[in-house]
Amino acid sequence: MSQPITSTLDPEQQRIAGETLQDTVVDLIDLSLIAKQAHWNVVGSNFRSVHLALDELVTVARDFTDAAAERATAVGISPDGRAGTVAKDSGAIGIGAGWQQDTDIIDTIVGNLAAVIKRLRERIAATEKADPVTQDLFLAIAARLEQLHWMWQAQLATV
Amino acid sequence: MSQPITSTLDPEQQRIAGETLQDTVVDLIDLSLIAKQAHWNVVGSNFRSVHLALDELVTVARDFTDAAAERATAVGISPDGRAGTVAKDSGAIGIGAGWQQDTDIIDTIVGNLAAVIKRLRERIAATEKADPVTQDLFLAIAARLEQLHWMWQAQLATV
Amino acid sequence: MSQPITSTLDPEQQRIAGETLQDTVVDLIDLSLIAKQAHWNVVGSNFRSVHLALDELVTVARDFTDAAAERATAVGISPDGRAGTVAKDSGAIGIGAGWQQDTDIIDTIVGNLAAVIKRLRERIAATEKADPVTQDLFLAIAARLEQLHWMWQAQLATV
Amino acid sequence: MSQPITSTLDPEQQRIAGETLQDTVVDLIDLSLIAKQAHWNVVGSNFRSVHLALDELVTVARDFTDAAAERATAVGISPDGRAGTVAKDSGAIGIGAGWQQDTDIIDTIVGNLAAVIKRLRERIAATEKADPVTQDLFLAIAARLEQLHWMWQAQLATV
Amino acid sequence: MSQPITSTLDPEQQRIAGETLQDTVVDLIDLSLIAKQAHWNVVGSNFRSVHLALDELVTVARDFTDAAAERATAVGISPDGRAGTVAKDSGAIGIGAGWQQDTDIIDTIVGNLAAVIKRLRERIAATEKADPVTQDLFLAIAARLEQLHWMWQAQLATV
Amino acid sequence: MSQPITSTLDPEQQRIAGETLQDTVVDLIDLSLIAKQAHWNVVGSNFRSVHLALDELVTVARDFTDAAAERATAVGISPDGRAGTVAKDSGAIGIGAGWQQDTDIIDTIVGNLAAVIKRLRERIAATEKADPVTQDLFLAIAARLEQLHWMWQAQLATV
Amino acid sequence: MSQPITSTLDPEQQRIAGETLQDTVVDLIDLSLIAKQAHWNVVGSNFRSVHLALDELVTVARDFTDAAAERATAVGISPDGRAGTVAKDSGAIGIGAGWQQDTDIIDTIVGNLAAVIKRLRERIAATEKADPVTQDLFLAIAARLEQLHWMWQAQLATV
Amino acid sequence: MSQPITSTLDPEQQRIAGETLQDTVVDLIDLSLIAKQAHWNVVGSNFRSVHLALDELVTVARDFTDAAAERATAVGISPDGRAGTVAKDSGAIGIGAGWQQDTDIIDTIVGNLAAVIKRLRERIAATEKADPVTQDLFLAIAARLEQLHWMWQAQLATV
Amino acid sequence: MSQPITSTLDPEQQRIAGETLQDTVVDLIDLSLIAKQAHWNVVGSNFRSVHLALDELVTVARDFTDAAAERATAVGISPDGRAGTVAKDSGAIGIGAGWQQDTDIIDTIVGNLAAVIKRLRERIAATEKADPVTQDLFLAIAARLEQLHWMWQAQLATV
Amino acid sequence: MSQPITSTLDPEQQRIAGETLQDTVVDLIDLSLIAKQAHWNVVGSNFRSVHLALDELVTVARDFTDAAAERATAVGISPDGRAGTVAKDSGAIGIGAGWQQDTDIIDTIVGNLAAVIKRLRERIAATEKADPVTQDLFLAIAARLEQLHWMWQAQLATV
Amino acid sequence: MSQPITSTLDPEQQRIAGETLQDTVVDLIDLSLIAKQAHWNVVGSNFRSVHLALDELVTVARDFTDAAAERATAVGISPDGRAGTVAKDSGAIGIGAGWQQDTDIIDTIVGNLAAVIKRLRERIAATEKADPVTQDLFLAIAARLEQLHWMWQAQLATV
Amino acid sequence: MSQPITSTLDPEQQRIAGETLQDTVVDLIDLSLIAKQAHWNVVGSNFRSVHLALDELVTVARDFTDAAAERATAVGISPDGRAGTVAKDSGAIGIGAGWQQDTDIIDTIVGNLAAVIKRLRERIAATEKADPVTQDLFLAIAARLEQLHWMWQAQLATV
């Protein structure tokens, strides 16, 4: 495949930025699909709160997907966010089929957020030298996902 | 799996509505992922027009996905919009990897829209008696997708 | 009483459209009053979610009341939405007096929605031949009320 | 019925505030239903002006209904705004069935507003000592209804 | 002339949809021009109400014109909305030249709406089997025009 | 009084621009007070239309007052819009005290608009050479007031 | 002059409410004209702050003028806000002609606000028994004018 | 036909203003219909740009139509914007039937704009003495149409 | 300290208004800090509802703080809302450190609201004669806080 | 250089319009850069007022730059707004480097506005016959700049 | 106290992030209370500018307080923003009681901003390795506070 | 020149931040002027896309100019964005005079963006230690400009 978009990064920097961004695109698309799936299938006494909070998560995941994919294009790398690629490469832990109890949904979302955040933290380290512009995007994504991770955990927590 | 949501439809009506809606959910999620993929990977002199038009298609596909999935829940059927399900069951024709010429993207979108519309037309016939409420949603989806189908075709047409 | 507004419907079509619309007006006004009553009198740990969701139901019921009443006028039939008429003719199952536990409120709303939807489904069948324009309105009302019926049921459901 | 909401008012103050607010809720719901009934059934050369002005009255009546009912809950009293209660207890003078001439509608609305305002003035006096917070709400309602009373009268007046 | 836009309809379905849509485009453009003409030329004591209501009718007619014309393109048929075509083919009954009394304007609008609605009702029947997607658009247009027909009639009616 | 603001106009141009603008300020303030007076005191079957149209006239008069006064300051002339000055210098024909029949109000407004427009036309001629920038403002005021003059006349006209 | 608008107030209450409201209308119109005059004629290093703050005062004075005048109509009294009446009856202290230094403008505004507030305080006392609905409007006007009085004074103060 | 609306223009001035405005109304309605026709029938690789730009032209043409027609009423002349009049009197050069290539559409629009502008320039000269208020409207229309003329030409130009 | 802002109140009235307003400022700032503290530290199954409702309380407390403090300045009294003053003088009952269970948070908020409302009721009595303008503000604050008191209690209540 | 855009102006008219517009583009870009420079570098007790007012001037200068440049293109003349051209050809008087006292900034802005207005007045005269459409734009620019000239002068003036 | 929220940070990283965030929360709450105190108590010729600028500072301080507190929760640390904690731990330098001259207020704000910024710069250094996500928030806060520090200083500066 | 604004940076840090920010201000102003020049002078079949995209680039360049210049002031350095300075110091590669073909415009924009980004990357490295707050701004500018660089390149690319 040709490389029609040029970048100021050297090839190794470009490789690191490209791979970490591609992995982020895949994780975030999967996160958005998991959150939508949960949005539709949740039942239980906290249905309304959880149903609404899931749509906020969908919006966050979609917006950062676009940011990561367009950052990849900006460094000259073609992103791949097709269904097959997501199904194959996602680092999220997924969600079961069918109707789900609200407490189980919260567990599922906390687990998926934790998995995606953990991988993102590694990419923050990996891009610090390779491309601080890309790292700055990862910092923004991590900040928002860690905030949501707290909010979802808080629904399960007791003191 | 339990069936926690009841419906006024009889079991056969519910089965028909449920299956046609589930298939629509899958087709539309795939269409939204294909359009986003194209949105990022298109190059060529019509980049800007195509890039913007693809995001309009993404919005349409996402909104109708939600409408179809929540119609499924309304008739007591759990929808499945997970990445693996989409990758396996979609009736869209997909999109190749990597950067794509704008004219090829237009061909790809026209082809995917045609495939999705054709299946939707069958579901309009199938639900006419089974559930006119569900049929009415399919009519709305078809109206919008056929409008977009014209607009994408028009970019290729000559007279 | 004179009939100052003319219609393209023949007398029998007009009678069917008029009666089904009048019954819908009454059911929906009652539904809006029941939901407001619940909105004020609900107590319990899910107070806030239920309180807010009830106002969404009020808005839906009021908007469709207006649509149904103005569809009646459009086919030349005077609608009657006065308190006495509603108290006498409503097909909703009503709500008890005084403060109500949130879980009881959810049961009450699910029951009222189910009763109203069931009657609406009959009117969809009755108007298919008599007046498809009126039927199309009933399809829209049913689509929205069945969506709400799922959302309220989901708060009670377990899997 | 239990009294789950506490108040800083003493029992007699609470009784006065509660009764005047309950009566106001009932009058205002009836006023909103009468205005909607008129909104649909008015005919005559001033149809459009009257039709639009009635919807403004509906909005006013609905908003103050909510304010009065939630003021009742705030002083620990469960409000009752069900159709049967409204049909039985309203102090408004009502509206006839069927299509109505625009000049008759204006008469009807002026009469209903006058009746509701007169009762409200008594409640302003009754709550001055019992609960000035509740009185302040009645002052606001009276101010708006008396403004509308002028506007509706002005359509009938000659000089 | 070439046919650059394809459709899922068979030729006969396409013919029926195309002809009914073309006729609708012409009727609605004429209706918008008639309403604008009336908007400028009305005089009389109800000038302001009629002047404003006519612009609402213009907006409705323009929006549905676009919807019908783009539905024609969506089924592969080129719509024709040129002045000469409208002048020649419109099914509306038109409006006289020069200043017009407000009561005459109301009569004129009621008559034009009745003519357009009657033709639309025939197209609803004609497209039921040929193309339910197109029929659904006609149902929406009829619902709105019949509502306006009531409102304009109501200005002339007495009881 | 000192002249703290300078202008590119020569003294004679400045005198002409200043006097015509000052006269316009006074006429327009009076017009806004007359229209508000009418807005409050109108009665009759067209109360609502006239009441609303008068507030549109108030807004127009106020906005152009500000434009004319600030144009005066821009050419170095202090404008005077005090109540006493308006009472003494206005070229409008005024309005009687007390409640007024709607038809009389319309006559009064048509007369005041005609008087103000006539004076404005003279100022358009006077400023053509003296200051085309000021003339351009007068053209804009005349265009809007003449439009309103038609609309108010149209309420009285018969054909 | 006839009295076409009725009121629930007895004649003496109506007289008190009417006179206090009429006086308030006149004071507030004059205040709005004084503030506009100042808005145009202020010069000095604080021009921009003072110029902007004066327009906020104009808006406040205009809005409360309308509220007071329409409260007069609501109690059946015709308000008089004509230029001659304002010039003759206003209790404001006025403003000099021509360009004014910003510090002098502030003094002028503080003085006018103080005069208007003082008269308003008397009307609050006068209407307490006569008409608490009218008094409540005077309380709102006083609250806002006293806030502005502080803000204008603060520009002159030293500590 | 009677002349129910008076004007400050003398008969000859009124004749000139009336005729130039009537001609402008007709040209602009035709321009709006031509642009809509093009909006629906354009095909080719620049479909989306041209399709969107045409709707901007429609909006411009419609807004100025209304301005010109209401300027005619303001000078006492009844405007005529009916389909037959437009078909007969328009100075635009029109558009062919059926689907049109995007480059042909651009040619067509440039030609129509040029024709309409040329006629408008003559009306600017004709109204300079007769009615500068009307001329000022023509200047505004010419300014906008000449801007659009550049933009449409620019799509065809090479350097 | 000097007293740079004058008031129409006599010294004793000013003292009463000033003290009650200062105490209100302190209570409301503390209420806003308590609600923010709770907003951050709440955990439990109702996290989302409570978290959101607390921010509404913060907004209410902040807005009324500003209103009370600026009412103090309007009567010539310098308000004191510094952290040390709040910590020393607040009449609220406070909140414990660290993470808090949602049910405990609700108890805490109900208790703080009750304490603040009780003190406010005393100030309503104290200012009735001293300054009805200030009393009117306290009535508005009490109305809103008592509404919130019901809503928070309702989350704990059972029937 | 080729002339790809045609105009209805004859060559001499086009030359005059083109030269006056080009000079205006250059003056206004320089004015916008001078105002931004002042916006950043102003210090002194009126910092905030001056800083904000400068951004309003920037917006005015930018908007009119675009209007003048696009008017040049509309008459077939290529505008030149490049930094080097502005630095070479501007008729503004410029601004010194480094931090500037607020009173000096006001002097500088008044001087630059006066210089630009003076040149604009000459262009108004020059284009009266050559192109009244272009002249109309210059009138609008002059009106706004002269208003700003007053406002900036007013900050320096004493009476 | 239990630690119900988990984090991907190791204990030492968590300790550093938690302490720096807690200190930031306290500083920013105090800054918001100081700015509000100044907002109410400022007098002098620049009252309006300073009064408005202080509310912008309040908004900035409140928004970053929330961001810092919710970042603390996101890393598993309970923030403490209670009045007593702020009074005890704040690193801001505070503000005196009573009315304050505008120039003194500016000095006070510059001093408080400088103190808070200085501490923030240390936290930027401390978190670079411990948690770059938290550091990124401190960079954003510093950027905005340093901008405000310039703006407040600029009001005191001379050149 | 005096240095009226202080900073927490030491002199060497301040020098680095100041120089990199000044250079950025100059580059971005030039970029905005180049993009505006292109916006006006582009011709060709992609006129509309390019014309609109250039205005987005202008907005980006202007917003970041302001951010960089105000960051310079925040660290105590006076920025210089005057036309002469831009003409002399800009690192952009510029644009030719006169009408330009759309494809040439795209080349020109890609080249200018590449030149500006390259210099920005060096400043990111230079400020990492000197001032991470300034670096964070450069990261944000680079992220956006590199995104635009991709979008403009994409219009030229083939695969």
TrEMBL record, chains A, B, C, D, E, F, G, H, I, J, K, L:
<dbReference type="GO" id="GO:0008199">
    <property type="term" value="F:ferric iron binding"/>
</dbReference>
<dbReference type="InterPro" id="IPR008331">
    <property type="entry name" value="Ferritin_DPS_dom"/>
</dbReference>
<comment type="similarity">
    <text>Belongs to the Dps family.</text>
</comment>
<dbReference type="InterPro" id="IPR012347">
    <property type="entry name" value="Ferritin-like"/>
</dbReference>
<dbReference type="InterPro" id="IPR023188">
    <property type="entry name" value="DPS_DNA-bd_CS"/>
</dbReference>
<dbReference type="GO" id="GO:0016722">
    <property type="term" value="F:oxidoreductase activity, acting on metal ions"/>
</dbReference>
<feature type="domain" description="Ferritin/DPS">
    <location>
        <begin position="20"/>
        <end position="158"/>
    </location>
</feature>
<protein>
    <submittedName>
        <fullName>DNA starvation/stationary phase protection protein</fullName>
    </submittedName>
</protein>
<dbReference type="InterPro" id="IPR002177">
    <property type="entry name" value="DPS_DNA-bd"/>
</dbReference>
<dbReference type="InterPro" id="IPR009078">
    <property type="entry name" value="Ferritin-like_SF"/>
</dbReference>
<dbReference type="Pfam" id="PF00210">
    <property type="entry name" value="Ferritin"/>
</dbReference>
